[in-house]
Design a protein that fits this description.
With about 700 residues, the protein is an alpha+beta fold. Strand 20 (about 400-405) and strand 21 (about 410-415) form a beta hairpin. It has 13 helices and 37 strands. Keywords: Acyltransferase, Calcium, Cell membrane, Chromosome, Coiled coil, Cytoplasm, Extracellular matrix, GTP-binding, Hydrolase, Membrane, Metal-binding, Mitochondrion, Nucleotide-binding, Nucleus, Protease, Secreted, Transferase. This is Protein-glutamine gamma-glutamyltransferase 2.
Length: about 700
């Protein structure tokens, strides 16, 4: 027999991409999911492959130093009966000189970029030929993959969807902001793989790191550490919370992860400025979805940051309601992290499913700024000793808050109000633009027998301040929504629940605030020394907050914190009430002109009305949407936008992909920043 000569080959990127749901990553490279067969075609010149005469074998290798014992290298022969456990190659069909071969990795294979080599031998003569590279991803569709997710709609949302909503605002005023995850956009996959190869564990021991890339728990921990740069590890984002962002991008201005990841790569893996919790979480979600691990961004309202681990957050207020910084413990208006879906074979049974991963740098875990994966089930059950970082997340949703009011003489009085942590834990619903409340995944109903059992197990004495005490009650109410640019009223509502007359002092104070709990200057105040309440009576005391007072110091978080202190003269008790008022911004209007069809030009008309009493300068619209616009489109307005006038642009774009997409818009100016809007657009497929 003459030698078998390989002439050309075809990795069938397009067909395999379709079957493996990776087609949107482009047909220039082969991207497949583990445990699922993919097809390649080999063309031989002269004569075709003959079974029994020719021997064919394949070599796959990943990482800088592939070895078989680490699972980063495998050699397997073309057979009719592949072995159960390893890689396999089976003849699919043969047609003269061309041979169709089906290759398949085990569902526990290492993910990453592989090189593929074919060895052919006839008799004693053998040659080997490198036939290309492919990328192997996790496979949520394969029942034996540790990231297997049963429901197809959930796989669509948590692995394939490139766009979503992230919840922000305040507990009483939940807002959603659109986000372009863009995990299939050009170059994002290679950047995600680069992120794995930049992580300190890889640089320390490349072989060991690559051999652990079959485990989503390990990958999740690496991603959680690499999205922030607090360990001098060439991480993706630098965090900043002090409202000074001039030497970078304000965290509120980002509208998607693609821009951030591309900047990180372009500038030689230097941290991108700046991120805050939702930016860290969204970038981590992009990386995890890109690698094939089902993931979602979740928001926890009134999130505790318990630095000393005692599950109590102590806050100190002066008699005038000003916060005194005596403790590093904080309460964030909201805090975002990621949940990723995976099995936990490293733990006892019962902890598979959603795992919390928090890439925002807060506390160190095993010497590194990362957090998780913490099984959400373990947080709910109070199993604090399991891996990883469960006490920290448990505190974020369960800590108690105690307000101490510091009198002039330095003595402290404990307030009879415990502010409530871990509320309205939210994520985007599957397949819809609505909010799903997942608080029940993290905690049992308040006051239930199960809640008491969990706290006993976690050695957490929940304060008994929950029970309404006799005497005076205090609440802060808003008459209607508060909008940036307008004056508005807040009301302290005092109720006397006793049969005797009560005399008290009321202090009301409003300050601009950031979402991580820090406050700025005062923008409204009232001190009433003698309020008399008849038995069973209720009184409502208004405080008017003027635009001219908050305009200068309102941060980009658009929050005003209102603190009310009520002192009963008879008992000396102090009651505290706190409310975060979210200042609504203008609405961005988006009109789509033309018939939305693949590869056909569309026009978007985008506008916003200036709600402020002053002109807006340096106005910019930033528009992007995976599958719609080619990257980011930036439109600057030449003229200032006068009060009550309209800022308006037209944008042309040619949609590349059919299906449902979000066109996302961010508006920036000198006085209004981080205004977001989006519009769902259904793109019809190009007629064949």
């Amino acid at each position: 027999f003459t030698d078998l000569v390989l002439e050309t080959w075809d990795l069938q990127c397009e067909r395999n991409g379709r079957e493996h749901r990776t087609a949107e990553m482009g047909c220039q490279q082969l991207v497949v999911r583990r445990g699922q067969p993919f097809t390649i075609t080999l063309h031989f010149s002269g004569r075709g492959y003959e079974e029994g005469v020719d021997k064919l074998a394949f070599n796959v290798e990943t990482g800088p130093c592939p070895i078989e014992t680490s699972g980063t290298k495998s050699r397997f022969a073309l057979t009719d009966f592949p072995e159960e456990s390893g890689w396999s190659a089976v003849v699919q069909q043969q047609d003269g000189g061309s041979l169709c071969v089906s290759l398949c990795s085990p569902p526990s294979a290492r993910i990453g970029r592989y090189s593929l080599t074919l060895e052919t031998s006839t008799g004693y003569q053998g040659t080997s030929c490198h036939i290309g590279h492919f990328v192997l991803l996790f496979n949520a569709w394969h029942p034996e993959d540790t990231v297997f997710l049963r429901d197809e709609d959930e796989r669509r949302e948590y692995v394939l969807s490139q766009q979503g909503l992230i919840y922000q605002g305040a507990r009483d005023y939940i807002t959603s902001t659109p986000w372009n995850f863009g995990q299939f956009e050009d170059d994002i996959l290679s950047i995600c793989l680069k992120l794995l190869d930049t992580n300190p564990k890889f640089l320390r021991d490349q072989n060991q790191d690559c051999s652990r890339r079959n485990d989503p728990v390990y990958i999740g921990r690496v991603v959680s550490a690499m999205v922030n740069c607090n360990d001098e590890d060439r991480g993706v984002l630098a965090g900043r919370w002090d409202n000074r962002y001039e030497d970078g991008m304000s965290p509120m201005a980002w509208i998607g992860s693609v821009d951030i990841l591309k900047r990180w790569k372009t500038f030689g893996c230097q941290p991108v400025k700046y991120g805050q919790c939702w930016v860290f979480a969204a970038v981590a979600c992009t990386v995890m979805r890109c690698l094939g691990i089902p993931s979602r961004v979740v928001t926890n309202y009134n999130s505790a940051h318990d630095t000393n681990g005692n599950l109590v957050i102590d806050r100190y207020l002066s008699e005038t309601g000003e916060e005194e910084r005596r403790s590093r413990d904080m309460i964030w208006n909201f805090h975002c992290w990621v949940e990723s879906w995976m099995a936990r074979p490293d733990l006892a049974a019962g902890y598979d499913g959603w795992q919390a991963l928090d890439p925002t740098p807060q506390e160190k875990s095993e010497g590194v700024f990362c957090c998780g994966p913490a099984p959400v089930r373990a947080i709910k059950e109070g199993d604090l000793q399991l891996k990883y970082d469960i006490p920290f997340v448990f505190a974020e949703v369960n800590a108690d808050v105690v307000y101490w009011v510091v009198q002039r003489d330095g003595s402290q009085r404990k307030s009879t109000h415990s502010s409530v942590v871990g509320k309205n834990i939210s994520t985007k619903s599957v397949g819809r633009d609505s909010r799903e409340d997942i608080t029940h995944n993290y905690k049992y109903p308040e006051g239930s027998e199960k809640e008491r059992e969990v706290f006993a197990k976690a050695e957490h004495e929940k304060s008994s301040l929950r029970e309404e005490n006799e005497g005076l009650h205090l609440k802060i109410k808003l008459s209607e929504g508060a909008n940036n640019g307008c004056d508005f009223d807040v009301f302290a509502v005092i109720s006397n629940t006793t049969g005797t007359e009560q005399v008290c002092r009321l202090m009301l104070c409003a300050r601009t605030a950031s979402y991580n709990g820090t406050v700025g200057p005062q923008c409204g105040m009232k001190d009433l020394l003698n309020i008399t309440l008849a038995p069973w009576a209720e009184k409502s005391v208004p405080l008017r907050i003027l635009y001219e007072k908050y305009a200068e110091s309102l941060t980009q978080d658009n929050l005003i914190k209102v603190v009310a202190l009520l002192t009963e003269y008879q008992s000396g008790n102090v009651i505290v009430a706190i409310r975060d008022v979210y200042m609504g911004g203008p609405e961005i209007k988006i009109r789509i002109l033309g018939e939305p069809m693949q590869q056909r030009k569309l026009v978007a008309e985008i506008s916003l009305v200036n709600p402020l009493a002053a002109p807006l300068n340096n106005c910019v619209f930033v528009v992007e949407g995976a599958g719609l616009t080619n990257g980011q489109q930036i439109k600057e307005l030449e003229e200032p936008v006068e009060p009550k006038a309209e800022a308006k642009i037209r944008l042309d774009f040619v949609p590349q992909q059919a299906g449902l997409h979000k066109l996302m818009v961010d508006f920036e100016s000198d006085k209004l920043t981080g205004v977001k809007g989006y519009r769902n657009v259904i793109i019809a497929p190009q007629p064949k």
